[in-house]
């Protein structure tokens, strides 16, 4: 993903500390550890631009497996209101673990659920959980402030008031946001959606984000129901509402962005507002097909994302690339989108949404974040005329052979090196069972 989009073969890549130092033939350096990649495909670490890690504990629940977004949410809020510290810690590790195992080295998160009974600093738990696994972590401080009694969707027990949210958002930025190059921790702000926060909170969140030069993120134009909700309550479509709230610009990215008119696409282009494309979630909830090939042709910033694990339900970044590749061919034909474009969405595209120019490509000076895949496997046999296409078009298991984040090996031979996977599985299942028994 260098500026020429070259695919290099039979070259060496030298990592020094947390950076890529050099790429070329026959590099020699004193006292180096050598990783033999002669049968491997080495990609820039993948970047996930939208998630709700807490949802890993409530995947594919039978009673909402076939529900549309609004019903699905209303049902799940009643399970999620019982989340506790331990649940948040392990849910973060489960989601980040899966992402790392599929070659994703940076993720954001959108934790918008702050149950009233939980007097604890949720971002602190998440930074601890992701940090221990070695993930580059750039979550948003999410929020919901409009419950059922005010015309929103969530129950009162999981929303906070605007003042509480803004105060905590500022504290989280001050404590965790590190804007320096190759930073492992950044924070952005993410009111959940137009149907569960007040307009006042949207407006003030934008001001706060700009004061601290962090980014803005929310769900937008995901379903027709959302269009109807906004038209009924505010007499405006979601994007028009966002424009009035000062929520457009190159420091804003929206999850989904499905139901846009031509005119709205032009507004996104003009304002350089970005979209996190979540194809599996959109298919899963029957929300629709985002106009991604058109957005790419227009130069609208687009990244790729797995979305929360209750609507995907996997945190599989390679699987998401394959889903994106196939989905757009249904509507727009076989030349709608290429493997190279999908990779670009999942790397440089998502990195741009997160405001990062130090990740997303393999170039000297950039972060040593790499996803390494073994190609010498039955499922890629016969596919090696195009190794990149092989892992997107072919394959039965999207597990990386090795994932390197910030110069550290965090996945080796397909297994996390930084945590005991068996322990995460055991704890995760126990907590999930407890949550579902309420
Ligand atoms: Zn989402």
Number of helices: 14
Class based on secondary structure composition and strand pairing: alpha/beta
Share of β-strand residues: 15-25%
- Biggest sheet, in brief? 5 strands, antiparallel
Could you characterize what this model shows?
With 438 residues, the protein is α/β, with parallel strands linked by helices. 38% of the residues lie in helices and 16% in strands. It has a five-stranded antiparallel beta sheet with strand order 3-14-15-16-17, covered by helices on one side. It has a four-stranded parallel beta sheet with strand order 10-11-12-13. Helix 2 (85-101) runs parallel beside helix 3, helix 2 crosses helix 14 (421-436) and helix 4 (162-176) runs parallel beside helix 5. It starts with 11 loop residues before the first strand and ends with a helix. The structure holds zinc ion. Zinc ion (ZN) is lined by residues 50, 52, 110, 219, 255, 307-308.
Write the layout of secondary structure elements.
Layout: E1 12-16, E2 19-24, E3 40-44, E4 46-48, H1 69-80, H2 85-101, E5 104-107, E6 110-111, H3 122-133, E7 136-137, E8 140-143, H4 162-176, E9 188-191, H5 199-212, E10 216-220, H6 224-234, H7 238-244, E11 252-256, H8 262-271, E12 274-277, H9 279-284, H10 292-298, E13 302-304, H11 317-332, H12 339-353, E14 370-374, H13 387-393, E15 402-405, E16 408-412, E17 415-416, H14 421-436
Parallel strand pairs: 4-5, 5-7, 6-8, 8-9, 10-11, 11-12, 12-13
Antiparallel strand pairs: 1-2, 3-14, 14-15, 15-16, 16-17
Helix pairs in contact: 2-3, 2-14, 4-5, 11-12
The structure holds zinc ion.
The site of zinc ion has 7 residues, from loops.
